[in-house]
């Protein structure tokens, strides 16, 4: 009897681990966002965004040699989650030299500052709620294409010579 209870507990812990890990979180977000947007007559590809509210931790444009010499491939995205048990995306960090020990934070975009005009309008019209808005934002932020665009934007801003 005790071994059966222990087996059920271990199985329960295993199921909880499967349901709440970060990989399944991104899959669940993508399914949720796709389904919700489809009901509203849109696709994930229809949602446009910009990174104008990104917070940079270096001055722009920068003259720091380590940053200026870095290739686009030296930048990486780090997802910031609020909890280990039930992951919830809080923001995205852009770091330099992620695999070389001392990664330097270059930019940060909190999820609350990631605005999507289409979702803003749907929220204003009462077609979606704030929690749905947040979940769709999280889904779009963790898409590989969005991450690539974010790295491209940071790289472009760092090398922009408008003030030199």
Keywords:
164 residues, alpha+beta, four-stranded antiparallel β-sheet, flat
End-to-end distance, in Å?
A: 75 Å
What coarse outline follows from CA principal-axis ratios? flat
Strand order of the largest sheet: 1-4-3-2
How many distinct domains?
1
Largest sheet composition: 4 strands, antiparallel
Structure summary, number of beta strands: 4
Structural class of the helix and strand makeup?
Answer: alpha+beta
Strand content: 5-15%
Instruction: Give helix and strand order, one letter per element, not per position.
Output: HHEHEEEHHH
Kindly state the mean pLDDT as a whole number?
84
Report the C-alpha radius of gyration, rounded: 20 Å
Explain the overall architecture.
With 164 residues, this protein is α+β, with helices and mostly antiparallel strands. The protein has one domain (22-158). It contains six helices and four strands; from the N terminus they run ααβαβββααα. The chain has a four-stranded antiparallel sheet with strand order 1-4-3-2, covered by helices on one side. A hairpin with a 7-residue loop joins strand 3 (89-96) and strand 4. Helix 2 (22-39) packs across helix 5 (130-141). The longest helix has 19 residues, at 2-20. The radius of gyration is 20 Å and the shape is flat. The mean pLDDT is 84.
